[in-house]
């Protein structure tokens, strides 16, 4: 039960950190998550006494994250950056471990033997592209540097793991063979890549085979895709390959063959992408919350005298790594494709972009507690140093990136986007209204289109109520006129008036009481409709007895259709840019009422689908026309088209 509560607390901390980041996005999300973890550690519950199980952590958290990074990476980009991958993930990783390890051994020979120094160096070598993204959300990172950081983080994790294993073996046995080390590195590194590529290819083939023979198998292929990294990591580790490189390789294979799958099932592809986005965001958040949660535990096991020394050592290690990364880029040992005048800046960006995160944390906790029958005395200190290096790299990046890089700026605000979307949808609704055919189908379509707008704004209750009162008054006048013309009876006129007085009450308020009120009114409408059916039948019999033709009297549906038409004409005459939101909400209420009272009418599903396609074409055409006329910028038009396409896909799926 404690494990379930721990997972709940971790997810709650991630959600709270995300909410705070939405409110104040100037501080990177990873810092909020670390702080949430630190606060979580202070809770009076044993659920926060978390024990890290490295193998489980690598399999359940790191493997899915690396697989998702691999399948989101373009093979074309990877093929163009093979030299950079080898330079940073193999060459730089080896050089960094040797230099940092040798420096630690020479500076503190009594504390750090060569194997122990190399172990610490291997742990702090891997970088985390997700952490970099969280630091550069609001700034414009040059594409060449960003791409280099992404491809580096895909493969240098495995280098760190393999080098740590070699250092740990040397520390345990007291001996080290260079030939064996090279063979072991090559076997684990390249064996993991080949193993993952083979299994990834087999799974893609299986997935395509299933999808070619069956139409809707999302419940099968999506779980297979989600379980893929866990299974491949476990099998690769059992074969003594790099599990991390195997899942990265399998992910890259998925990205290579993704084009073959793209049009086989749009529904499956969208669901898969959504699920992986949720999984990736949650797991990344959990990693940083765990970092914050574990820091107080590690510090609590460290004496105050040693704490200051470890902090100083952590800063020194970070600075050495920073200088090494800068020199590697400045001396063009990695090709950033930077112009000569920007090489210095890009070199510093690459150096600062070496932010540490998930792998560094997991490697630190993967150190054994017992070595050669004795307790590993330096384990707690290495974990604390690694955590402090992670924190230092994040804090320095959070400060430096906004200073060195320009802020991202859209040429439109959120308000402008919402206003443009409202105008776009309103244009489509007006175009549909101009055609008097297919009224029942169009009523449903226009109601659905209106939902595109109502999700983005809050209405002005004063303006809404004023227009609603005028609309109700118009309905009452029409009902009175129909009674005078003897198109409805006096008793019917009274019933209609009661319904009108209550039909759109509280439409603009999305509160719980509004929901209750709506339910009550719908029950009343159902009772009234049932009673009116009986009264109309009785009324028709009375008319036949008096030899009057019953067809001269309007039916229940006809009265409400007439009321809706007249109210919509009235709303057309008073609509302005200032009250379009409130009028749209009122139109939705009338459309929903019309749909309710006409629910017995048959609608043509095929015609509805055609109208949906036509409506979204109207929206895209309007955006294109406004772009041509200079009313919308290119970025605003792109955002609108993306939103319209997403809404269209959701509408289509809802009708399946």
Automatic annotation (TrEMBL):
Compartment list: Cell membrane
Q: What are the Cation/H+ exchanger transmembrane domain coordinates in residue numbering? A: 11-404
Per UniProt, the keywords (alphabetical) are:
Cell membrane, Ion transport, Membrane, Sodium, Sodium transport, Transmembrane, Transmembrane helix, Transport
Q: Give the main localization category.
A: membrane
Is Transport among the key words of this record? yes
Which parts of the chain span the membrane according to its record?
7-24, 30-50, 85-108, 114-132, 153-176, 182-203, 215-235, 241-258, 270-295, 307-328, 348-370, 382-405
Query: From which domain of life does this come?
Result: Bacteria
Q: Does the keyword Transport apply?
A: yes
What is the membrane topology listed in the Swiss-Prot or TrEMBL record?
Multi-pass membrane protein
Q: Which residues form a coiled coil?
A: none
Q: Which PANTHER family match?
A: SODIUM/HYDROGEN EXCHANGER, SODIUM_HYDROGEN EXCHANGER 7
Q: What is this protein called?
A: Sodium:proton antiporter
Q: What is the lineage of its organism?
A: Bacteria, Bacillati, Bacillota, Bacilli, Lactobacillales
């Amino acid at each position: 039960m404690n494990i379930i509560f721990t997972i709940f607390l971790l997810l709650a901390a991630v959600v709270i950190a995300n909410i705070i980041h939405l409110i104040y996005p100037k501080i990177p999300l990873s810092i909020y998550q670390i702080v949430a973890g630190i606060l979580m550690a202070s809770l009076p519950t044993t659920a926060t006494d978390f024990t890290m199980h490295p193998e489980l952590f690598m399999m359940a958290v790191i493997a899915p994250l690396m697989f998702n990074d691999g399948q989101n990476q373009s093979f074309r980009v990877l093929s163009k950056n093979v030299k950079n991958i080898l330079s940073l993930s193999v060459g730089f990783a080896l050089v960094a471990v040797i230099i940092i390890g040798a420096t630690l051994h020479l500076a503190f020979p009594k504390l750090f033997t060569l194997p122990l120094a190399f172990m610490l160096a291997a742990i702090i070598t891997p970088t985390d592209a997700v952490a970099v993204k969280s630091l550069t959300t609001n700034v414009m990172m040059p594409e060449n540097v960003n791409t280099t950081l992404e491809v580096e983080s895909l493969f240098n994790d495995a280098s760190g793991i393999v080098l740590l294993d070699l250092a740990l073996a040397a520390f345990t046995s007291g001996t080290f063979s260079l030939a064996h080390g090279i063979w072991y590195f090559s076997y684990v590194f390249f064996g993991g890549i080949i193993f993952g590529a083979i299994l990834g290819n087999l799974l893609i083939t299986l997935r395509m085979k299933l999808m070619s023979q069956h139409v809707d198998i999302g419940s099968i292929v999506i779980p297979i895709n989600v379980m893929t990294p866990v299974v491949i990591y476990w099998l690769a580790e059992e074969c003594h390959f790099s599990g991390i490189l195997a899942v990265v390789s399998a992910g890259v294979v998925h990205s290579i063959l993704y084009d073959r799958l793209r049009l086989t099932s749009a529904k499956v592809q969208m669901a898969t992408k959504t699920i992986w986005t949720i999984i990736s965001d949650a797991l990344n958040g959990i990693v940083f919350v765990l970092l914050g949660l574990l820091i107080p535990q590690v510090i609590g096991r460290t004496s105050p005298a040693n704490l200051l020394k470890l902090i100083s050592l952590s800063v020194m290690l970070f600075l050495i790594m920073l200088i090494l990364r800068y020199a590697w880029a400045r001396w063009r040992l990695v090709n950033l494709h930077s112009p000569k005048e920007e090489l210095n800046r890009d070199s510093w960006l690459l150096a600062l972009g070496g932010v540490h995160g998930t792998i560094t944390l997991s490697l630190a906790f993967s150190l054994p507690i017992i070595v050669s029958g004795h307790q590993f005395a330096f384990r707690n200190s290495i974990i604390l140093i690694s955590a402090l290096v992670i924190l230092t790299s994040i804090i320095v990046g959070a400060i430096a990136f906004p200073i060195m890089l320009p802020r991202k700026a859209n040429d439109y605000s959120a308000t402008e986007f919402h206003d443009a979307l409202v105008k776009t949808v309103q244009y489509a609704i007006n175009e549909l209204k101009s055609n008097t055919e297919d009224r029942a189908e169009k009523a449903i379509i226009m109601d659905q289109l209106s939902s595109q707008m109502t999700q983005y704004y809050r209405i002005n209750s004063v303006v809404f109520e004023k227009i609603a009162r005028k609309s109700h008054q118009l309905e009452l006048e029409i009902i009175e006129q129909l009674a005078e013309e003897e198109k409805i009876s006096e008793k019917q006129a009274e019933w209609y008036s009661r319904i009108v007085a209550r039909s759109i009450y509280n439409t603009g308020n999305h509160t719980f009481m509004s929901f209750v009120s709506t339910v009550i009114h719908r029950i009343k409408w159902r009772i009234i409709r049932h009673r009116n059916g009986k009264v109309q039948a009785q009324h028709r019999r009375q008319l036949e007895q008096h030899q009057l033709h019953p067809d001269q009297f309007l039916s229940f549906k006809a009265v409400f259709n007439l009321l809706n038409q007249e109210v919509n004409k009235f709303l057309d005459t008073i609509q302005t840019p200032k009250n379009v939101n409130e009028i749209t909400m009122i139109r939705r209420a009338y459309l929903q009422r019309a749909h309710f009272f006409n629910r017995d009418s048959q609608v043509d599903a095929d015609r509805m689908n055609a109208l949906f396609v036509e409506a979204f074409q109207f929206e895209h055409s309007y955006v294109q026309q406004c772009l041509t006329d200079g009313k919308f910028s290119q970025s605003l038009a792109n955002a609108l088209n993306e939103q319209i396409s997403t809404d269209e896909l959701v509408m289509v799926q809802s009708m399946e």
